[in-house]
Every structure is written in C-alpha cells, then in structure tokens.
C-alpha cells in the first residue's frame, strides 16, 4: 500500500509540477491480477483499483492497517469501470456490471474480485474510509428493478446540470449517500459529461468538511483533463489522463476542463455526508 501524507496550502503554492503530481496524482490504479491501494492521511481515505484477469484476487488488510481484515474498522464503495465482474463478500457472490457499484459494510471479512471475461476484465475502482458501525452490503445499479440486496439509484439522485453554452452540460449520478445507500462517512458517485461539454464542477467549490478524490475515465489515449486544485485565489493545474485519480484536500477546489468530454467518479469522506454542503466560489473570484 502506498502512503501519502497531508499537505498545507501554504506549502503547496510553492510546489513544482513534479511535486504536485507526486502528492496528489495517482497515475495508475489498474494492474493485471493485482490490487493497487493508496492510503492518504487526508481523512484516511484509501483509493484503489483491482483488475482481475486470469485469476480471482483477494483483498487483505496488509501491514499498514494493523487489522485482521481490510474492513475490520472500515467501509468501502466500489464502482466497476470495466467489463462484468464478480465480488464475493463473505460467501455471497454479486455480479457487478459496467458502471454498477457496491457498498461493503464494516465487518465483512473475505472479499474476492474476479472477471467474467478475461478479454474484457472488470476494473473495480474503490474508495474506503474508517467506519464506526456496519451498514448493509448492497449492489448498486444506476437503473433497473430493485431486488433483495440490490439498490437502484433514485431519479432524484440523477442530477442534470450545466449547459452546452457553458461547456458544462453533465449528469451527476449519486450512488452512495444517506437515504439511498447508508454509510458511516463515504459519499460516492459518477458524473458524465455530454459530448461538447468539457468542464466539471464549474462554477467550482470547496468543502472544508470533506475531502474528495476524482477518478477520470472514458478518455482516449491522447485526451487529457486539466484538473484544477488549490485555494480559489491560488490555483494550480495537474494534467490528468485516462483512468488516473487525483486527491483533493478539503481546502482545495477540484474542477477540470478536458480536451473533450469524459466521465469521472468522485468519492468524499469527512465531517458530514451533506452533498450540498459546499462553499461556492464565484467565477470572478478565481485566480
Ligand atoms: O460535475 C460536478 O459538479 C461534480 O460532479 C461535483 C462533484 O460531485 C463534487 O465535487 C461534489 O462535492
Ligand atoms: Zn466537491
């Protein structure tokens, strides 16, 4: 597991491009038959990727957590950005299709990931945070019919906003949040930009009470997103490419403009789970 420490905005404004990338960018998450995990001291979020190809891959706590199993004191959200795969959680198997997700509650002991087709492997993107109680483990589908152990994203949690005129027409699909999928602190979802729209989270915001991680995907090899971070009056950019993630401290804006449209997964942890608790930054204030 890779460890990242927290940073002060006073220091970050002096960082070079390379240092910014070392601290905040996660350049690669998906390795065949491996689990890649990055542990950040910022709210102790773990960001990870699992791409099982030829075999099933088991999640273990590793040395760093000093726990008997990964979710002994944690919860986890997962969204599959690859082909159909399976997650085996304490003996119950869930088939997780493209863009379907899972919430795994604290206390689940044995977790194994596999792919249905090794030619089109699953790519499980995960965010995990410390937890204090156990909420039900569920499969999450953006649409479909609810069944036992399966939650369908409510229409009210698919929010279309922006416009083509402002180059920010997009739909925010909230997977894990109170009233739909209960969790201790993790809030997670996916935002899709319409063709011709390139801006996410613009006008931008901060939320001192939560940190956030973005995973950008559905981008061709030559495409990129200029991801903006920093205090509103002291912004910096990080060039982010397909399937790369970027960590945003609570004090930082997190917004991007791409060379074309793209999709991204956002995950937040911290003080509250109130999606709308944001400190809006007016476009005129940005520097
Ligand atoms: O495009 C957007 O706007 C977002 O997706 C915003 C993120 O969900 C976010 O930053 C939530 O705090
Ligand atoms: Zn945010």
UniProtKB/TrEMBL annotation:
Domain of life: Bacteria
Gene Ontology MF terms: 4-deoxy-L-threo-5-hexosulose-uronate ketol-isomerase activity; zinc ion binding
GO BP of this protein: D-galacturonate catabolic process; D-glucuronate catabolic process; pectin catabolic process
E.C. designation(s): 5.3.1.17
Coiled coil: none
InterPro entries: KduI (IPR007045), KduI/IolB_isomerase (IPR021120), KduI_N (IPR027449), RmlC-like_jellyroll (IPR014710), RmlC_Cupin_sf (IPR011051)
Catalytic activity: 5-dehydro-4-deoxy-D-glucuronate = 3-deoxy-D-glycero-2,5-hexodiulosonate
Family the entry assigns: Belongs to the KduI family.
HAMAP family from the UniProt entry: KduI
Protein name (Swiss-Prot/TrEMBL): 4-deoxy-L-threo-5-hexosulose-uronate ketol-isomerase
Species in which this protein is naturally found: Schaedlerella arabinosiphila
């Amino acid at each position: 597991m890779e460890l990242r420490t927290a940073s002060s905005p006073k220091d970050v404004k002096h960082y070079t491009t390379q240092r910014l990338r070392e601290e905040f960018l996660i350049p690669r998450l998906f390795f065949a038959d491996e689990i890649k995990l990055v542990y950040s001291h910022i709210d102790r979020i773990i960001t990870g990727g699992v791409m099982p190809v030829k075999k099933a891959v088991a999640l273990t706590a590793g040395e760093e957590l000093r726990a008997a199993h990964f979710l002994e004191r944690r919860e986890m959200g997962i969204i599959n950005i690859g082909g159909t795969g399976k997650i085996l959680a304490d003996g119950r198997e869930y088939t997780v299709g493209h863009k379907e997700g899972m919430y795994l509650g604290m206390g689940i002991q044995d977790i194994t990931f596999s792919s249905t087709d090794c030619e089109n492997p699953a790519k499980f993107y995960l965010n995990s945070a410390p937890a204090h109680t156990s909420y039900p483990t569920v499969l999450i589908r953006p649409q479909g019919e609810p069944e036992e152990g399966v939650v369908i994203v409510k229409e009210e949690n698919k929010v279309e906003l922006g416009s083509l005129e402002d180059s920010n027409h997009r739909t925010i699909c909230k997977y894990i949040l109170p009233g739909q999928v209960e969790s201790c602190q993790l809030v997670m979802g996916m935002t899709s930009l319409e063709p011709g729209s390139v801006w996410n989270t613009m006008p931008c915001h901060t939320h001192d009470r939560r940190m956030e991680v973005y995973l950008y995907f559905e981008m061709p090899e030559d495409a990129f997103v200029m991801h903006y971070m920093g205090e509103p009056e002291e912004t910096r950019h990080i060039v982010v490419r397909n399937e790369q993630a970027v960590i945003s401290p609570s004090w930082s804006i997190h917004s991007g403009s791409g060379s074309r449209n793209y999709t991204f997964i956002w995950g937040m942890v911290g003080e509250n789970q109130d999606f709308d608790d944001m400190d809006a930054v007016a476009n005129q204030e940005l520097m």
